[in-house]
Each structure stands twice: as C-alpha cells, then as structure tokens.
Amino acid sequence: MAKDTGVKLKKIVKETYGKIAAGNKKSKSSCCGSGCGCGGADNFMLESYDGLKGYNFDADLGLGCGLPTNFAKIKKGDTVVDLGSGAGNDCFVARAQAGEKGKIIGIDFTPEMIEKAKKNAKKLKFSNVEFIYGDIEKIPLSSNLSDVVISNCVLNLVPDKQAVFKEIYRVLKPNGHFSVSDVVLNGDLPEKIKSAAEMYAGCVSGAVKKDVYLKCIKKAGFKNITIQKEKNVIIPDKDLKKFLNGEEITAYKKSPSVISITVYAEK
User: Fold this and answer.
1) Residue 227: beta bridge partners?
2) How many angstroms separate the Cα of 55 from the Cα of each of 61, 81, 94, 107, 155?
3) What integer pLDDT is reported at residue 234 of this predicted model?
4) Residues 6+ apart with CB under 8 A from 122
5) CB-based contact 38:203 (threshold 8 Å)
6) Closest CA to 264 of 71, 107, 49, 75
7) Considering the domain 3-266 in this protein, what is its CATH number?
8) Of 32, 90, 215, 232, whose CB neighbour count within 10 A is largest?
9) Where would I find the H helices in the chain?
10) Given phi > 0 = left and psi -120 to 50 = alpha, else beta, which region is 203?
C-alpha cells in the first residue's frame, strides 16, 4: 500500500472514531454508527458482553466484532496490552481477569478515545489500568513487556498489518501470546465496497483475506497459530444498497465474503 494512501486511511479512521468518542452512547453521528458494519448500535458484528465480569456500560461504544478476552487466557498478575482500546471496555474486562496485581495498558491513536477511557478508569478508581496515545504500527512500549496482547476489531483498520504483528511480537515477553478478534475475507469484495472510505472506517473494506492475515502472523515469528472462533458476517441489505445495485447485491449474497475470527498465537 502506498504511503500516502495509508496516511489518508489513518486520517479517515481517526476522524471517524473521534466523532464516536465525542458523541453520545453508541453514536450514529458518523459512518461507524448505523451503516458501516463496525461501530454503533447497529453493528451487526457485535457479541454480547452480558455476564462478563468487569464489563462497563459507559466504556462500551459498540465497536467490536468478538470477545477476545474470553479466549486470551489471562491469568492473575498478567500484564495485558489492548491495541485500539477505545473507551476501555476490553481493558476493564481484562483487568477483572488479571486482578489488582495485574497491569492493563490500552493503546489508541484517537485522542478523544484516550480521554474517554481515562475518565472511565478514574470513575472506576482503577490504579492499574493505563491508557496511552499511540499508533499500533509503532507501539509506544518497550520490548518483552506484556504477557498477553488483545485487540477487538482494530487491526483491519490498520494499513500495514504486517507491521502491527511484528510490533505485537516485539512487546510480548518470551512465551507470551495474543488473542485478537478481527474481520477478514474468505473471498473477494465487490470493488464498490472495497473502494468506499465509509466501509473502510466500518471495518469491512480494510479487511484482507484470511490466508493473507494468517501468513502475516506466521511471518512475524509466531507459533501455535489457532483460530479460536469464526463466524460469517452478514451485511444487511440496507447497508449494501449504499454501494451496490440489486443485481450486484444478489451476486454478492450468493458468495458472502466477510467473516469475523478470533485468532490466538504464541511468541
């Protein structure tokens, strides 16, 4: 991907998620509200946090596509890094698992999200949860720091996915591991969806094919790569109609190509 294209996409994502953070609960004020497939009350990729210890309503902006904390094997006392931590929801769930002796660090490159997450942590009086502004292609943490890395529907928004997995490998301790929920493809997206900035910020057109995604993980040096959960993502007709005509929608639905996966790997 050309450098200028990557810069442009990052700008789109930062502006979009900044609006969500600044808006009301599960904001529909931006394209990641209703209509992009990732974010807001109409996010058809969402999974329920009901019953999860540590879940905080104020920190849940409806931006995920899985529950990586359910699969991350977090132990008491672990240092956990959440990439693209948003308002802090997955960090607070991870904190419940790691306990008071654990350390949770959220990284996000949207200033409004960092501000919102810090306010949520302050309200909850958590002294072992920290939120840091930074780009996850260049994680602002030292090497061999973390026992576990998690992320929820974020890596698909990053232009250079290989760089992110290299960074995850770097910040993990030897024998550390990650569990990441993300959107990938099992086929080709229609060009009209692929080229839409709205669908990029909505997690769909930024996704790569599953085999490419897994190769990035392997190339970064990880072992024991495992798909922990996989499900088809059905994009509603009302969203497809923004980009495709009737015949194109019919053709796409015969071979839907978007899936959500949660993948695990070890350093």
Assistant:
1) 263
2) 12, 17, 9, 18, 22
3) 77
4) none
5) yes
6) 71
7) 3.40.50.150
8) 90
9) 3-22, 89-98, 111-124, 161-171, 191-194, 197-201, 210-219, 237-240, 246-254
10) left
Length of the chain: 267
Phi then psi dihedrals of residue 264, to 5 deg: -120, 145
CA-based end-to-end distance of the chain: 27
40 in Cβ contact with 31 (< 8 Å): no
The predicted pLDDT at position 24 comes to 45
Q: In sequence order, which residues have a C-beta less than 8 Å from that of residue 225 and are 6 or more positions away?
A: 214, 217, 218, 263, 264, 265
Tokens of 228: 């922990």
- How many angstroms separate the CA atoms of 21 and 177, rounded? 29
- Answer yes or no: are the C-beta atoms of 56 and 87 closer than 8 Å: no
Share of residues in the chain with pLDDT > 90 (%): 54
Task: Sketch the domain layout of the chain as residue ranges.
Answer: 3-266
Give the 3-state secondary structure of 130-170. EEEECCHHHCCCCCCCEEEEEEECCHHHCCCHHHHHHHHHH
Residues of the chain with pLDDT under 50: 2, 24-42, 200-201
